Amino acid sequence: MSTETRPRNIGRNISRIRELRGMKQGALADAIGTSQQTISSIETSETVDFEKLVQIAKALGVTVEAIENFTEESVFNFFNNFYDNSANNGNLNNSNNHCTFNPLDKVVELYERLVQAEKDKVEYLEKLMKLK
Prior knowledge:
Radius of gyration: 27 Å
Strand content: under 5%
Structural class: mainly alpha
CATH superfamily of the largest domain: lambda repressor-like DNA-binding domains
InterPro entries: Cro/C1-type_HTH (IPR001387), Lambda_DNA-bd_dom_sf (IPR010982)
Protein name: Helix-turn-helix transcriptional regulator
GO molecular function: DNA binding
Keywords: DNA-binding
Organism: Flavobacterium panici
């Protein structure tokens, strides 16, 4: 059994991070001042010039180390930890989630304003019709 590991494919890591960020190749290309074809080529290569890697990392909003050490498992860990930490941490009295108003009252208020606007429109149109 071989214990050697495959070298990290930097291009594939860039591609996955770009996809997770919801960015198209063209948008990344524009951000670093190159063509979409160049980005496609970079994403299929195993190594990337360090200066180009720095530009790509900045455009993706991550560090060079994040690109170099990217794994699918780390993404799942990040999202699981983010969700766990941003939930309530088991505290049901989390003050960050309390509304200072009743959302239903705001909906009713908005609805009443929309109804009044429609009444004003009808009144205006009736006046126009009387003038003709």
